[in-house]
Amino acid sequence: xxxxxxAIVGASESTKIGKVEELSGMGLLLNAxxxxxxxxxxxxxDIDGITTGYYPPANVAQHLGIQPNWADxxxxxxxxxxxxxxxxxxxxxxxxxNNVLITYGESGRSHGLPISYDIGASGSTxxxxxxxxxxxxxxxxxxxxxxxxxxEFGLTxxxxxxxxxxxxxxxxxxxxxxxxxxxxxxxxxxxxxxTWPIRRSMCCLVSDAGGALVVTRADRAxxxxxxxxxxxxxxxxxDSGIFDPTAIxxxxxxxxxxxxxxxxxxxxxxxxxxxxxxxxxxxxxxxxIYTLEGLGFVDYGEAGAYIQEGNTEPGxxxxxxxxxxxxxxxxxxxxxxxxxxxxIRQVRGEAAAQVxxxxxxxxxxxxxxxxxxxxxxxxxQQI
Length: 383
Hints:
By secondary structure, the protein is α/β, with parallel strands linked by helices. It is 35% helix and 17% strand. The chain has helices at 25-40, 57-64, 80-94, 125-134, 138-153, 157-171, 185-189, 218-221, 255-268, 287-294, 303-308, 325-328, 336-348; strands spanning 6-13, 49-51, 70-72, 100-107, 193-195, 198-199, 208-217, 229-238, 277-280, 360-367, 372-379. A hairpin with a 4-residue loop joins strand 10 (360-367) and strand 11 (372-379).
């Protein structure tokens, strides 16, 4: 399998995002899937592979009128749809199917999440050793390594707040973004403290949204209405249970980010300087900081200042989270699908806050708390 052997030929989100009371998570998924089939110029009968998460693939296929030869429902948290994309490419390469529809929908704001997000199953490591220290509050769990990071590297609360400020500048250009008004560091730091040092505006939104993709072989991709977006490479890693930080050897330098990045760059034949655009899952404001460092775009301890200096905002040299991210655009529970959607829009030249000259974009997704991650490199150029 070579870089660019497979391509995205259909990509779309649900017609509405944010607060969509009239649709369930399944309804958002089906709406996004219908939009994506239209984007690809396909009918349900043209799809012979399907993936989903949180819902049985058979249910999704039934609703869409699809009779697939192959299905997948891998769930590893927010990076699941990147894992499903990797699995879909492998399935097509193996000859199991030809056109795979990757589907996603969650109604986290209006109707609740489709699965339990309690920390771990009964008897799990998380229940025994994590829950007593966090009371099940995600911000408290994520704050534990963040406090240590701030102590070791000197990251300031102002730099942490600036992550949101930078992404709000992108959101201001996006009519679909939830938070679009300009904001200052002082205003972010004035929002209620959830668990020190994490403030409310350093936490992601809670939204309703759906998204879907169609992937096929690159030699067929030019037969579709939209220009193909080639999958140059990908990588992934899993280190622990969904919310179990006890298995992570270094909470300041999680090795799974490094592994996913090295796999993605190696399989794509790319270097860091080849990346024109980044989408990084930002359930909390410090995740882009960790990920920029783990992927090797900056050295450890430097990402906070790098963002504060304006490098990732409009006009910066490394555009990051150009839809506004989970902090300002939308975050429906498992944000990885929406990360990929914005990468694909940028590569297609269709984004609301379009960056000039984007040929290659890297989308990075998180699952759980340093549990799983995945990176996918997209391009409008086939290597």
